[in-house]
Amino acid sequence: MSRRPVIGVTAYVEPAAWAVWRDVPAALVPQAYVRAVTAAGGRAVVLPPDDTDADVLRVLDGLLLAGGADVGPERYGRPPDPRTESRPDRDAGELALLTAALAADLPVLGVCRGMQLLAVAYGGSLHQHLPDVVGHDRHRPAPGVYGSHPVRFADGSLAGAVMAGVDEVNSYHHQGVADPGGLAVTGWADDGVVEAVEDPARRFLLGVQWHPENDAHPRPVAALVRAAAGAAPAPPRPTRPRPPVASG
User: Fold this and answer.
1) pLDDT in tens, 153-212
2) Among 44, 119, 160, 246, which is most buried by a count of CB atoms within 10 Å?
């Protein structure tokens, strides 16, 4: 039996509650990410923020940058908007991992915040509050409530191959990519918001603005696991995503 590809999934550090414990700082990640990696044939390893080194990459076959709080605007040379909520520990730890992963050409998938972190790492910048740019709240209708919207992908792109036949995705974010830096933009919402970025020069580097881990068939996660196993990222059968559950 062949070894499952090991996928590092970056974690949140947030106050959490379980059993008799309340508001305890915890390193955690929504189970949806783990479930998606496992269903695709991978082995998920949760990575709490740690910027001491990136030695853990020696035992990983792929890296998944999970969603969560905003990337600190100091990382792309902007003053903070009052509505920006950053996590400096995550920024430092994840950028250390990403820098090393890029040097090793390790397959990387960025989800929501993770896509935005990719753009920043490639020299880009973010819109700190999308409603100010697009004039609506459809990308995050309410706290803990996902929206959905049409999406299109560039012909011949990795995103287009992975998402072939899909024309709508879920949505839960109030920031977005303003400048992708050195990345190629290969997916767009119907209002022009960037929905996918990638680096065609790399073995597998893809960022998606939505939360595929919550879909019935999480195609980008499956493509990451395939790339980590050394296979070409072939998309599964076309299907419309199911309504997600809120997971941050």
Assistant:
1) 999 999 999 999 999 999 999 999 999 999 999 999 999 999 999 999 999 999 999 999
2) 119
Q: Give the global pTM.
A: 0.92
The CA distance from 176 to 178, in Å, is 6
Q: Which residues are catalytic?
A: 112, 211, 213
Rounded-to-integer distance, Cα 168 and Cα 170, Å: 7
**Neighbour-count burial for 215-240, b at 16+ CB within 10 Å, e otherwise:** bebbbbbbbbbbbbbeeebebeeeee
User: Tokens 């996590």 label which residue?
Assistant: 87
The answer to whether 209 and 126 have CB atoms below 8 angstroms apart is no
Q: Which residues pair with 194 in a beta bridge?
A: 188
Q: Which of 44, 29, 31 is nearest to 90 (CA)?
A: 29
Instruction: Spell out the domain ranges in the chain.
Output: 6-228
| All residues at 6 or more sequence positions from 155 whose CB lies less than 8 Å from its CB, including other chains | none
User: CATH assignment of 6-228?
Assistant: 3.40.50.880
- The conformational region for residue 89 under phi > 0 = left, psi -120 to 50 = alpha, else beta, is alpha
